[in-house]
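Action item from last week, closing it out:
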Amino acid sequence: TFDKCLFAGNYINTVSGWFSGERYEEEYTFISGENYRFINTKFINCKVSKHLLNVTNSVIRDCEIKNCEGLNLPCEYLFHLTDTVVERTKFIECKMETDDDNRSLTEGGILMVERGKLSDCIFEKCSAYGNSNYGSYASYKMQIVFACNTTVMNCNFNDCSCSSYDSHEKKVKSYIVGLKNAISENNEFHAC
C-alpha cells in the first residue's frame, strides 16, 4: 500500500546515440505489478518511456497525478490498468507523445482501463499526441481515456486534447474518452 506517498522528479535515464542524439531509456515503466493500493498519493513531474503505472487488481483513490509525461512512447498509454478501480483522482497537465517510428497505425493516450471502474476523477489540461514516420499516410487512434469493459462515470474533462497528423485518405479516430464494450455516465467535457 502506498498511502500519502510522494513520487516527484524524473526517474527515467537519458541515453545518447552517435546519430540519434539524446533519447530516453526505452521501455521504462515506473511501477508494474499486482494488488497495489495507491491512497492519497502524489505523482509530480514523473517521466517514463512506457508506463508510469502498469498494474492489475489494484485501487487508485484520492490521488493527484500532475505534470507527468510519457516520452517517446511506442504506442502505449501512460497508465495501463487492468481490473483496477480509480476513484476521486486528479490528472493535471499529463501528456504523452508517441515516438516517430515506422508504423501505419499509431495509438495511445493517458489512461487505459480494462475491466475496471473510473469514477469521480478530474482530467485537467491533459494531452495525447501521435507521431509516425509515415506522417499523413498513417492511421491514428489517440485518447485521453480508453475504457474497455469498464464503467466511466462522474468524471470531468477540462481543456483536454488528442491530436495527430492528418491522415491521408484514412480516418483519424481520436477521442477524449474512447469506449469499447464500456459504459459512460454523467461525464462532463469543457473546452476539449
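Closing note: Residues 17-21 have pLDDT under 50 and may be disordered.
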